[in-house]
Amino acid sequence: MLKPNCRIFIIRHGLTDENIIPYSHLHTAKLTEEGKRQTEKTANILRNIKFDVILSANTNYAKDTSTIVANIFNASVQYCTDLNERNIGNISNTQAKDLNKNYLTLKGKDAWDYKLNDNIESFAEAYRRIIKFIKFTSKKNSGQTVCMVSHGLLMRILLGGLGYIPYQKIFFTTLINAGYIELECARNKVEIKSVFGLKDRTRFY
Fold first, then answer.
1. Can you say how many angstroms the Cα of residue 184 is from the centroid of all Cα atoms in its chain?
2. Beta-carbon neighbour count of residue 118 at 10 Å?
3. How many domains, in total, are found in the chain?
4. Mean per-residue pLDDT of the chain
5. Would residue 201 count as lying in a domain?
6. What is the pLDDT of residue 24?
7. Whole-model pTM?
8. Residue 11: CB partners within 8 Å, gap ≥ 6?
9. Looking at the predicted structure, is the pLDDT value of residue 1 above 90?
10. Pair 88, 61: CB distance under 8 Å
11. If you count Cβ atoms within 10 Å of the first and of the last residue's Cβ in the chain, which end, N or C, has fewer?
12. Which domain holds residue 113?
């Protein structure tokens, strides 16, 4: 058990049109009204926690989510590209479907390292990005509690990298919109304390 010097809560953004329409790639999408309600509900669940710092991915819907959280906690937001979703480049809808179909057949480390092409970030590469950022943030904000707003797949990749779920389960699970992960960080170590909203995936497009 760690004696944490920093607690981090990572919240997934609320529901967007991109989540409703498969392969729409609407990276400029806004939160739906349901997404706003989801975010408010999660923020109220966490309302007894004092967030010293709020960090957010810089997609529009992550910004919308973090703004709702910041207003409830009366805090400001800093935007960070390290919290952005795994980079899949400018692939077509057909290629995106192929990427998902391939994940259905991959096992273990094959799924962790798989790339459809060189422009796509593998799960392993995305994990190295997010865990480096988390460790940097925990050291910078020692003794504080940090809120991060990020994206579902990146958060599941983090769960896989930290051993909470097997590598092959990353694609077979989903984290509900406005679900969250609670982390405890100390001495360059990161441990998962709780996860809210992780469930089996029922749609693979």
1. 16
2. 6
3. 1
4. 90
5. no
6. 44
7. 0.92
8. 39, 42, 65, 69, 147, 148, 149, 150, 178, 179, 180
9. no
10. no
11. N
12. 6-193
